[in-house]
Specification:
alpha/beta; Rossmann fold; 3 domains; seven-stranded parallel beta sheet; 57% helix
Length: 779
């Protein structure tokens, strides 16, 4: 049989589909078929790196049956990058080859992917087979592809349709309709290591991750689970293959126990799979099939992977692998811990894995696909059409397979419904709605102010500002940041007496934290600056809770400063007359917060006894957090460091207060709004920024300035202009100090954002090492 295999993806940027098609070609050739593989090919040059965002193609020599379709461009899709060709050369070469190549069957992979697959489907004059590799739940994208781009019409031309898994069949039937047979991806058992695996023990476990450093692949989740596993006393080693150190670095907090191998050859990958005790595949979704799982099975290695649709077709729970909830580092860590302490179980699962791999052996898979080819040829012969029917078939207006119509329809989800998923989904929706509502309110307030006040008036007020005083305010803001850094340095020295805390690290942390707070609609500034310092103090994961606890000390000092500002505000404007009780509450807030932090660990220890399991777990977690926070208050037990930290933190607020007043002078508003108005503005913008809905709290910031300054007799136009200038000075300060600090730390904004998002520690509910030893002794 003469077969044309068509892949839309680059041969030198291999992914799951590309490797599947190449292995299928080898399998069919081994059966005696005449095969040609058509796919794009990117040479290793500068243009290829430019077209793929700096990623180099792999140096893969083309086999004799390969026909190049030219270059590709990398396009983000489904949480990954699709390397597709759109060149006239590809269209011309493939069209002529498919029409005039004398093939018995044309097998198109991903018929919905532009442009190569479409050309093959349109040009074919022989039986046409299509394989669907994708699992996707994004309705908007799939509807656009199926209707606007005509993929559904292309599918009508297929004489047989294959899905590589139930997940891929669900996607195809949901969005494109039709009838599909499931034929899984194959694995080369002959190339897999067949010797005995290295001996395993209960105190040491070798983990392996194979894949790209993409969030969709779940590498950040695995790294957090791995750190928790080592924290639970397991001597674990993690090898990351398929990603470079530069790609993995943004997700790492510390490198101990982690080996990054970068890009590896197929032979090296097989060896790593054989040497590993467990292969980890913590993908978050979007996987139609687990090729790395079948490769692990072929090497005799069990897997721990996410319980997602594409993986459940491969893994038999408890026999050759363990399924855990996707995106749950604690569940992943606990599953790895259970396997790490039970080498006998790992050995049983390894034997089952080798047996399971037989189902996916390429000779068997190639034979199943050849049977599909034969059915396609039979169907094409049975449906010899009239001229009118021929036109309908060529146009894709009727199905070429002759089977009953099966239009796209709603199908129940095949993803597992996890306990509490509805509650978590409702919380996520409520959070997004709240953030969107806050952002809309801020933008709406700004737009309303612009409409009522008038843009011309605001621009005139901005231009009337004295540049020298604006520069003075900018300098004062910078000085305020330095004072805050000095205060935090004293707090860190008290909390970490055995560590060498450098001033420049504390200063960089403060400045980077301000930059992150100014550019993101969430309070990532605090964890960002804690990460910067913790990574400089040895074992980052051990230091991070204490460093985070030191932020409590600064927060309490900030509350004291806000109480002072609030007192000045209440005393200088009549807006709050008759509400003197609010003054007492504001003044008492710092002391109440300090009392809560000090007393909470003692109180929580006495409540929620162990017989109330869930309540005890929650209170224990809160208590540990409070203990870490209380360690951050250690500075107040050292008179010298405590007084210095308080003086510098309050000085920072005082300098910032002076900067706010300087901007009033710059706009000529100091005769109406004096030092009390500056205190009121500083108080208001900090209170409204507790939970920022937009980056830098844009909109709400200006509204707070207008509301406060109006009470001091300042017109709305001047007050709005003041809010714009004040925020501009704060953002300029954040960038002027934060960007050089990021460069000094050798990090990018994206790197720090990823680390901050994945910085929270994971706690495993597992027995500690002493409990395990007692259990062994008892046994």
């Amino acid at each position: 049989m003469r077969v044309a295999l068509v892949s839309p993806y680059s041969y030198t940027y291999p992914g799951g589909v590309g490797r599947h098609v190449e292995a299928l070609a080898e399998g069919l050739i081994g059966r005696g078929d005449d095969v040609r593989l058509f796919a794009p090919y990117d040479p290793d040059d500068r243009l290829a790196r430019v077209m793929h965002r700096g990623v180099r193609p792999e140096p893969r020599p083309a086999p004799s049956y390969f026909v190049s379709l030219g270059r590709t461009v990398g396009i983000p899709a489904n949480g990954a990058v699709s390397n597709l060709s759109f060149t006239p050369h590809a269209v011309s070469t493939l069209g002529h080859a498919v029409r005039d190549g004398g093939f018995d069957v044309v097998h198109v992979h991903e018929p919905n992917a532009p442009v190569v697959s479409w050309v093959a489907a349109e040009a074919a004059r022989v039986p046409l087979v299509g394989t669907f590799h994708t699992y996707a739940t994004n309705g908007g994208v799939q509807r656009f592809v199926s209707t606007m781009l005509g993929a559904r019409r292309v599918y009508q031309k297929l004489h047989a349709r294959i899905a590589v898994s139930e997940a891929a069949r669900w996607t195809a039937e949901r969005w494109y309709g039709g009838n599909y047979v499931v034929v899984p991806n194959g694995v080369d058992l002959a190339a897999a290591p067949s010797g005995p695996k290295p001996p395993a023990d209960s105190e040491h476990v070798r983990l392996l991750f194979v894949g790209r450093a993409e969030e969709r692949k779940g590498l950040p989740i695995l790294l957090r689970a791995f750190e928790a596993l080592r924290g639970a006393g397991i001597d674990a080693r993690l090898t990351v293959a398929g990603a470079t150190p530069e790609e993995v670095e943004p997700y790492l907090l510390e490198r101990e126990g982690v080996e990054i191998r970068g890009r590896v050859t197929d032979g090296e990958k097989s060896r790593l799979l054989h040497q590993a005790d467990v292969v980890c595949a913590p993908s978050l979704g979007g996987e139609s099939f687990g090729m790395v799982l079948t490769e692990a099975f072929a090497a005799g290695t069990p897997v721990v992977c996410s319980d997602i649709a594409g993986y459940r077709d491969v893994v038999r729970e408890g026999l050759d692998g363990v399924l855990v909830p996707a995106g749950d580092p604690a569940a992943l860590g606990e599953a790895l811990h259970a396997l790490a302490i039970d080498p006998a179980r790992r050995a049983r699962m390894a034997r089952c894995a080798r047996e399971r791999a037989e189902r996916f052996a390429w000779p068997r898979v190639a034979a199943e696909i050849a049977q599909v080819y034969e059915r396609a040829i039979e169907r094409a012969a049975e449906t010899a059409p009239s001229r009118l029917s021929h036109v309908a078939l060529r146009a894709g207006l009727r199905p070429a397979d002759g089977l009953p119509r099966n239009p796209p329809r709603r199908i129940p989800s095949i993803e597992p419904e996890l306990p509490g998923a509805t509650r978590r989904r409702a919380f996520r929706v409520a959070r997004r709605v709240g953030i969107a509502a806050g952002a809309a309110a801020g933008v709406g307030l700004a737009a309303l102010a612009l409409q009522r006040i008038g843009i011309d008036s605001i621009v005139h007020s901005l231009l009337a500002a004295t540049p020298v005083w604006v520069l003075v305010a900018f300098a004062l803001m910078c000085a305020s940041m330095l004072a805050r850094a000095e205060s935090w340095h004293a707090i860190l020295r008290a909390a970490l007496p055995g560590a060498r805390v450098r001033r420049r690290h504390a200063a960089r942390g403060v400045m980077i934290g301000v930059l992150m707070s100014a550019t993101l609609p969430a309070r990532l500034g605090e964890p960002s600056r804690a990460l910067i310092v913790a990574r400089r103090l040895g074992r980052a994961r051990e230091r991070l809770p204490v460093v985070l606890g030191t932020l409590v000390s600064q927060t309490l000092l900030n509350l004291v400063a806000l109480a002072i500002l609030g007192t000045v505000m209440f005393a200088t404007v009549g807006l709050f007359r008759g509400h003197e009780g609010a003054l007492a509450l504001v003044a008492a807030a710092p002391f109440a917060a300090a009392g809560l932090v000090i007393a909470a660990p003692v109180v929580l220890r006495r409540i929620a006894p162990r017989r109330f399991g869930k309540i005890h777990q929650v209170t224990a977690k809160v208590r540990r957090a409070m203990v870490d926070a209380r360690r951050g208050l250690e500075v107040f037990r050292h008179p010298r460091l405590g007084s210095w930290a308080a003086i510098m933190q309050l000085l920072a607020w005082g300098v910032q207060w002076l900067a706010c007043y300087t901007l009033l002078v710059a706009l000529g508003l100091d005769h109406r709004a004096g030092i009390g108005a500056a205190a009121a503005v500083l108080f208001a913008v900090n209170v409204t920024a507790v939970i920022p809905a937009t980056p830098s709290n844009i909109g709400v910031f200006q509204a707070a300035c207008v509301a406060v300054l109006s009470a001091y007799g300042v017109g709305h136009t001047d007050a709005f202009a003041y809010g714009i200038i004040l925020q501009a000075v704060e953002v300029a300060t954040a960038f002027a100090l934060g960007m050089p600090s990021l460069v000094g730390e050798g990090m990018s904004w994206r790197d720090l954002r990823l680390r901050a998002l994945h910085a929270s520690p994971v706690e495993l509910r597992v027995p500690d090492r002493s409990d395990r030893r007692r259990a062994k002794a008892g046994a």
